[in-house]
Every structure is written in C-alpha cells, then in structure tokens.
Design brief:
The structure holds three protein chains of three kinds.
Chain A: H1 3-24, H2 28-48, H3 52-77, H4 91-113, H5 126-136, H6 138-158, H7 164-167
Chain B: H1 3-36, H2 53-63, H3 74-92, H4 110-118, H5 121-131, H6 135-166, H7 171-177, H8 182-185, H9 187-200, H10 212-215, H11 225-250, H12 261-286, H13 292-320
Chain C: H1 4-18, E1 40-43, H2 53-57, E2 63-72, E3 81-92, H3 101-105, E4 111-114, E5 128-129, H4 131-138, H5 155-170
Antiparallel strand pairs in C: 1-4, 2-3, 3-5
Classes of the chains: A mainly alpha, B mainly alpha, C alpha+beta.
Chain lengths: 171, 321, 186
C-alpha cells in the first residue's frame, strides 16, 4: 500500500461517514454542515489523485456557493436549533435509491478497470485542463454553455414580476 | 533541508504572521482612527503611546468568562471561531513575498486556490449565526450569506481579469508579468477587487452582518472572551490577506521603482501591503455603513458590470498586443 | 459632481490626522479650566454672619447651618449686643447642582467658587463637606479675573488695592487685606 492508498481509504471513510450523517442526523442545519465535510473530503480525494484544479473548483463552487446557498435557504425558512422531528425522510425508498446508485456506479467502475493498475498522472494544471476542454471537448463545452445560458434566461423570465402568464403570480 | 523541516518552518512562519499581522493592523487602526478623529487613542499600555494595547486586550479576553447560551448548538457554536481563522491562514500559505523561493508554498494555480479558500469564510459566519440561537445573530448570518454570495462574483471576475492579462493563474507568475502601466489598464479591476474584498471580509462600510446599530453585533452577539477575540483576529487577518492579495495581483508585489527587486523585494511587498491596509482603515473611518439594499445595489448594478466591462477591455487589449 | 463627497470624506479625515489632536491628557496633565470655573464652594467663616440667606436660597437644600447666639458686652453701650456664632456649616455636594445662587446671594463675601474638582468619594455621605473642609478650599480660590484684558481690574481687586493704599497711608500696622474677602464687607 502506498501513501496515496492510505490517504484515499481514510478520506473515503470520512466522506462515507459524514455522508451517512447528512442523511441520518435529525438536526436540519447540521446535515448541511456535515455535507460540507463530505464535499471537502471529496475535494481532498481529488487532490490525492493529482486533480488539483478539479479539487479547487469543487471547493469554490460546491462549498463557496452551493452549500452556502443551501444553508441560507434553510436559515431563511426555519433555522431550527436542535432536533426536528417532522423531517419527511422516506427511509426505505431512500436507502433503495442510494444503494442502487452506489451499486450501479461501483459495478461500472469495477467492470471498466478490473485490477488494472493506473499510474497517477501528472498534477492537473490549469493549462492541461484548458487544452483538454478547448481541443478535445469543445463541442460539449459549448453545449453546456448554451444550456447554462438558457437556464439563466429562464431564471430571469421566471422572476419577472407582473407577467401572469409566465410566473402565475398575480399583480 | 529535508522536506518535513521545510514544511514545519513554513507553517510556523505562517502561524506567526497570521497572529502578528492582525495585531499590528489593529494597533495601527487604534492610532490612525484616533488621530483622524482628533483624538490620541490608547496611551497607557506599554508605556510608549500605548503600543501594547492589543496585548493588554488579549490578556483581558483570556480572563473573561466563556459563555455558551443554553439554547445554542454547543459543538457548532464552539468550533465556529476556529473555522473563521482557517481560510485566512491557508491563504497566507501561498502569498508570494518576494521573487524566487520567498513564497510560503508555490502553487501553479495559486489564484484559483486563493479564491476558492477565501470563499469559505462565510461558512464560519453561518455556523456562528445559526448556532447562537439568537434572532440578531441569525439575521446577521443571513445578511452575511447574501452579501458574500453576491460579492463573490465581482471578486472572482476582477481577479480573472488580471489572470487573463498575465496569462497565468500562478500568483508569482502574475507578479512577474506585471508592468507599471497595468495600474491604469487594470484600474477598474483593482477598484472592484478592493471593494468586493472589503465586502468579503465584512469590513466597514460593508459590515451589515455586524451592524451594531441595527443588529446589536450580528453573528457576534453571543460570543465572549477568547472566542470573540478569535473572530476579531479573523477580521484583521482578513484585512491583511485582502491587502496582500491586492498588492500581489494589482500593485506588482515585490517590484519596486529602483530595481534591487531580488534583494529588497520582500520589503516592497510589505510596504505595499501596509499602504493598502492603511487605505482599508481609512475607508472605515471616513465612510458610514451602507444600507442593506444599497449594498446589494452596489454589487449587482455597480461592481458586476464594471468587472465584466474590465474583462472585455482586458481581452481587447490582450488581443491587440 | 457625483462622488465628490467620497473624496471629501477621505480628505477631511486625512487632514485631521495631520493636525494635533485635541485630547486633554487629564490625569497626567492638569486641565486648563476657564476663569470662574465652578468646582467647589469655599466658605470663609470670618466673613459669615449666619444670616442663613444661602441656606434658604439653595434650590437643593444642600446647605445646612447650625448656630447659637452670644451676647457681646460692648463697653459704653446700654445693652449687651447679640451676635450669631457659627457651629456647623455643611454643604452636601451630592445634592449641590452648582447653580452658584448661594455665592451670588451672600452679602458678606463668605462663599466663593474654587475651581478644584477632584473631590470624588467612594461613599455618598463623604460628599458632605463640613466647616474644616470648606475652609481648606479657601486657599484654592483664585483672584477674580479681569473682565477685559485692557480694561480696569475686577471690582474686588480695585477696591482692595484702594483700601490697602489708604490703610498704608494712615496706619500701616492695622492692615489685614486679602483680595478675596476684604471687598464685600461694608
């Protein structure tokens, strides 16, 4: 076992544990805080796998924006301190979907690589990612850009006040 | 030098800097603010013009009772002040002080790293505000979240402009590529970055999350003693980090007007950081706090368009060259 | 122009920083009090006739006086004269509101303002100043300042000087002139 292996297993355990806490804790806001731990763990895993750029993107977007927005919304609506008993968490369907997704992804990965050894590539610099995105993956990149633009315009249209036909809001 | 010793030395230096720099800035603020208001400021602690005032303050904070409200979420409440320091400590790790190896840690994508970690500051605020179980704290946290989400955008865009101009994401690379005429070319980005940075560290005139006249002290309401001191330390460490980033990105870091950059580079960096920090203090003393809606207006109608326009300008000049 | 106020704000604060600060470093450096500062009230017993005007005029009832009558036999007079003798004279500075009416109303110049103000106490009751304490304050009463720098001196001083000169001309040995208390006497 190399250092990277040990690190990956440790990080994986942390991620798995905190992810379980996200769905089992009865403190609503603490679930969000555990999600932060999970995402930091995933970023750390990226770092160990030498995907530096992806790791920092993960931190910048998921932690800096998504989780903050999530916590913001929770606080804006309820912000309960302590245990909330009225959490609507269908246990069995949730477990089924979660385990199913994990099983499917796991099977896919195992099937793809078997026991093949993959050497860690060189650190993923911004330059390499830029080359990849703008040479091999230009078309998907542009498509994603178009999708995001559509979503942006859609959000603006939906939030326009006074247009009953779109937002369904009354004047 | 073995790798582990190197690492230990660097971490030690960073810890010293992150604890000393805020004290120096805080003491300067005491004095500068006093004299700008026609006062003298602290005069007793440490015998000579109260130089040890903040040391005395620290001694006082240590002695104070550490209160945790009964309704608070104890572990989250207690860990939030420590978390508030972390992002700034990590950012200091990569700020280049001088040319060559005078960097705490060289990173190829230093700028990206800095922006990513800097955005984490809001999490500590959210934790503190929610765990306090106090309505003022909660409102402070909400304001902080709205403010930091909004200002993250012009902050990143302004930094992106200078990265585009330099053609690299490395902080030392940006300083290497910097030329004096960038002061004019990147001026809008500098202003946007500085203002958004002030808002990111919740500094007057953007301190609505604390707003003592409206929210008592926002997310700091329930904190006492050492934990409160940690938040204060984080605020002043934030000033240091923002000044250092502005220096490195827009003011040419270790480049001085008389050459000797290799020998005196670190001094130039420190002088520039000191000047920018002074401006941060100055702005606090000269201007009152913005209103919450003015804050969001300034961000979305002022800074974001300015930053976007700067991006277009940068791209245009870059293509023309 | 819009935004000029922002620059002005910075300019004002910077200019203030370059000027000397106006802070008085009080416990280290004594403050420069304006003339006729009202610090504490001094009582000159020799001038007091126990007329009780001050005690009656005091809006706060801060002054309490006790006295008794004595007969003075004047040789050659038909009857013995009566004279008031002061036993107690207390001013409660916890009640006093520093209006100065007692000083104004005293017909014999027995009460004077002193600029001393450092007589804070830990106990409220200690703020009652008795005869001895009030006498000690007399030494701190400054000579009255001139109304006008180039004009004549204060009335009290002029009268005292004249009296001094007149006394020196007639009988130098009997003079007992004090610029503070010699004036109000008739």
């Amino acid at each position: 076992m190399t250092v990277a292996d040990v690190l990956l297993i440790t990080i994986g355990a942390v991620v798995l544990g905190s992810a379980l806490l996200v769905v089992t804790t009865r403190h609503l806001v603490r679930a969000g805080l555990w999600l932060i731990v999970t995402l930091i763990g995933v970023a750390a895993a990226y770092l160990v796998l030498t995907a530096e750029m992806v790791a920092w993107v993960q931190i910048l977007l998921y932690l800096g924006a998504v989780v903050v927005l999530l916590l913001f919304a929770v606080m804006l609506t309820r912000a309960p301190i302590g245990v909330s008993d009225d959490l609507n968490r269908p246990r069995w369907p949730g477990a089924l979907v979660g385990l199913g997704a994990a099983g499917a992804l796991g099977a896919l990965l195992v099937n793809a690589y078997r026991w093949e050894k993959v050497e860690l590539p060189e650190a993923g610099t911004a330059e390499r990612i830029g080359e990849q995105v703008f040479q091999s993956w230009v078309l998907p990149f542009e498509l994603v850009g178009l999708l995001l633009l559509a979503a942006l315009i859609g959000a603006i249209v939906l939030s326009q006040p006074g247009d009953d036909s779109v937002s369904g809001r009354k004047k | 030098m073995p790798a582990w010793l190197d690492l230990v030395v660097r971490v030690l230096i960073v810890i010293i800097v992150i604890f000393v720099a805020p004290l120096v800035i805080g003491q300067t603020e005491h004095k500068v603010m006093a004299h700008m208001q026609g006062r003298l400021g602290p005069m007793y602690a440490g015998a000579y013009h109260g130089w040890a005032q903040l040391v005395a303050d620290a001694a006082k904070f240590i002695q104070k009772e550490d209160i945790t409200p009964r309704a608070a979420d104890r572990p989250v409440f207690k860990i939030a002040p420590v978390i508030s320091m972390l992002p700034y400590m990590i950012v200091v790790l990569v700020i280049p002080l001088g040319p060559g190896g005078l960097v705490a840690q060289k990173l190829d994508i230093g700028l990206f790293f800095v922006l990513a970690v800097f955005g984490l500051g809001v999490i500590a605020v959210l934790m503190a505000s929610w765990a306090s179980a106090n309505k003022f704290a909660l409102m402070g946290g909400l304001r902080a979240a709205a403010q930091l989400l909004g200002y993250e955008l012009p902050f990143v865009l302004a930094a992106a402009s200078v990265a585009m101009a330099a053609g690299t994401l490395s902080l030392s690379g940006i300083v290497e590529a910097w030329r004096p005429w960038w002061l004019i070319w990147q001026l809008p980005a500098l202003v946007v970055f500085f203002l958004a940075g002030l808002a990111e560290i919740r500094r007057t005139p953007f301190d609505m999350p604390i707003a003592d006249s409206e929210l008592v002290a926002g997310y700091l309401v329930e904190y006492t003693g050492l934990r409160y001191a940690f938040f204060m330390l984080a605020e002043y460490a934030g000033i240091f980090v923002i000044s250092a980033l502005t220096t490195v990105l827009f003011l040419g870091g270790w480049k001085g007007p008389f050459g000797l950059d290799t020998e005196l580079g670190w001094l130039w960096t420190l002088i520039k950081i000191a000047c920018v920090s002074f401006v941060v203090l100055w702005v606090r003393i000269a201007y009152p706090r913005l209103r919450e809606d003015q804050l969001q207006r300034l961000c979305w109608l002022g800074l974001v368009p300015a930053a976007l326009a700067q991006l277009v300008l940068t791209a245009g000049v870059k293509l023309a060259l | 122009m819009k935004g000029i106020g922002l620059a002005k704000g910075l300019a004002v604060t910077f200019k203030t920083m370059t000027r000397r600060s106006t802070t008085q470093q009080y416990p280290d450096v004594d403050p420069e009090l304006p003339p006729r500062s009202r610090g504490v009230i001094a009582h000159i017993e020799e001038n007091c006739t126990v007329c009780l005007l001050c005690a009656r005029e005091c809006p706060d009832w801060a002054i309490t006086i006790e006295s008794h009558k004595e007969e003075v036999i004047v040789p050659g007079a038909a009857r013995a004269r009566q004279r008031n003798v002061l036993d107690e004279f207390n001013i409660d500075f916890a009640l006093c509101m520093y209006c100065g009416i007692c000083v104004e109303v005293c017909p014999f110049g027995a009460l004077h303002w002193s600029p001393e103000f450092e007589y804070a106490e830990y106990d409220l009751r200690d703020l009652v100043h008795s005869r001895d304490r009030l006498r000690e304050w007399v030494m701190t009463v400054p000579p009255p300042p001139a109304h006008d720098r180039n004009g004549a001196g204060a009335k009290e001083e002029v009268v005292a000087e004249k009296a001094l000169a007149a006394a020196a001309a007639s009988a130098p040995s009997q003079v007992d002139a004090c610029p503070n208390d010699g004036s109000g006497r008739i």
